[in-house]
Amino acid sequence: MRYFDNNATTRVAPEAVAAMLPFLTERWGNPSSGYRFGHDLAEPLIAAREHVAALIGASPDHFFFTSGGTESINTALQSALRSEPDRKRIVITGVEHPATLNFARLQERNGYEVVIVPVDSAGQLDLNALEKAVQQETAIVSAMWANNETGMLFPIREIAEICRKHDAPLHTDAVQAAGKVPLDVRTAVVDFLSLAAHKLHGPKGVGLLYVRPGVSVHPVIVGGGQERGWRGGTENVAGIVGFGAAALRSMRRLDEMNTRVRSLRDRLERAILERISGTSLNGLPEPRLPNTSNIAFDGIEAEGLMLLLDAAGICVSTGSACSAGSHKPSHVLTAMGCSPGRARSSVRFSLGVDNTDEDVDVLLAKLPAMIERLRAEFSSR
Ligand code: PLP
């Protein structure tokens, strides 16, 4: 298999599997138990928490583990709304993940006004529109660090400054940024930050929500007081330990992501744009994640290309995995002003540290003939 869909999920790193295994086989106790077989698990949990803390430049006391990105996002937004019940405005960008968009839309029924800050044709945020939106009392602003479909990076430090100036709390969805660009909550001063382990070669079903010191948390999942009462439920010990190992590995391989993987992505992108006519990039070359390339192929349905590539053992994505299955054009590309036709002809290639030169060669060898075939079929319809 040649896997070019690392923004959907990543292979669990061997280091993460090895770290997790003892907690699925021999050390399967409950950390809250009074005997050693249980409470001895505190130690590996503390170590994992420290590794994950280093990934975002936070103190281990300032985040809690969740079941993943979606839960973290829901908890951050819900918590902010409960903290300031008199503020009835939610500000988000038009290219957020469905976890954010759908949470915000649901709140309209509860009397909230949802302001969607637009992006331009390259996917860059209109900071003037953001500033205007937050001038009225705002319960929460949510802006992603990096976009899952185009890889475009938002200027999160500038966004944070605007929010601070107008006393509007800020959540950032950093799910796609982690492991690809440096994250540091000491320099990007956000109130909440969400991550998911499975995007950085950790296991699925575990993530975190960082909360800036002094910001209140209103737990959404209440239970037995785990995670200092911020998130109930018996700890996912193996998952958390796997997240810790994956965080360590991704910090060690961050340079490789920004050198070798970036140049692999650039070689793939350049070759497609040069060798195949009627192709163009969605977004800009920079500021962008080093692994992502979203390309429109005129005169084809991306869905058809995905199926042909799948038959050849190559995985790519059309739109985000979460919206796959629906035939709606990508809301991200639509928000950037793409026509539905262009959005439906766009393919996302997302690379990772497991990709090799040979993967790119194989993809490039197959792609032109597939595009030609699809174009011929499309025009004869
Ligand atoms: N935010 C972004 C930008 C994502 O790409 C994803 C996953 O695709 C999520 C949030 C949701 O994460 P999870 O599927 O782990 O809940």
What does this protein look like?
It is a single chain. It contains 13 helices and 12 strands. The chain has helices spanning 14-25, 36-39, 42-56, 69-83, 98-108, 127-134, 156-165, 237-252, 254-275, 302-311, 331-335, 340-344, 357-379, and strands spanning 2-3, 63-66, 89-93, 113-117, 140-142, 170-173, 192-196, 207-211, 279-281, 292-297, 314-315, 346-350. Strands 2-8-7-6-5-3-4 form a 7-stranded mixed sheet, sandwiched between helices. It has a 3-stranded antiparallel sheet with strand order 9-10-12. A two-stranded parallel ribbon has the order 1-11. Helix 1 (14-25) packs antiparallel against helix 8 (237-252) and helix 10 (302-311) crosses helix 13 (357-379). Bound molecules: pyridoxal-5'-phosphate (PLP). Pyridoxal-5'-phosphate (PLP) binds at residues 68-70, 97, 99, 144, 148, 173, 175-176, 196, 198, 207, 320, 322. Pyridoxal-5'-phosphate binds at residues 68-70, 97, 99, 144, 148, 173, 175-176, 196, 198, 207, 320, 322.
Shape verdict = globular
Mean pLDDT: 96
Number of strands: 12
Structural class: alpha/beta
Q: Please list the strands of the largest sheet in the order they lie side by side.
A: 2-8-7-6-5-3-4
Q: Hey, roughly how much beta strand do the residues contain?
A: 5-15%
- How far the N terminus sits from the C terminus, by CA atoms, comes to 32 Å
* Count of DSSP H/I helices: 13
Whole-angstrom Rg: 21 Å
Pick out the low-confidence regions.
none
Bound molecules: pyridoxal-5'-phosphate
In sequence order, what are the helices and strands, one letter per element? Answer: EHHHEHEHEHEHEEEHHEEHEHHEH
Major sheet: 7 strands, mixed
The percentage helix is 40-55%
